[in-house]
Amino acid sequence: MDCVDREEAKAAVERAAFAAFVKAARPDIDPGSIESRRPREPDITCVTLNGERLAFELVELCPPELAKAIGDELKTGGGVTDMIWTCDPSRAALLKKIGKTYTASGPVDLL
Asked: How far, in Å, CA of 14 to CA of 73, rounded?
């Protein structure tokens, strides 16, 4: 998979996760307005039903390897029965995102 394909795959996962967030917690956002953006801009831009433009930077707190292992187990019909103890990545993720500079026309929310 080349770089462009990986970027599009990542953007598609981000849009799907954000759409689930919108459905669960932000019914004021127009789902048809959700757009992926390229770096220096936040990950997602969208528009509320009232026309307000919003921007969101997304962060994944679950290591991809752990998410894949759990997903693979669930796809095979199994249940996740093992416990895994990991460190809390929240602080490192937050510091990394706070250190970034974004090109945006308004405030950027971290999700």
From this structure: 22
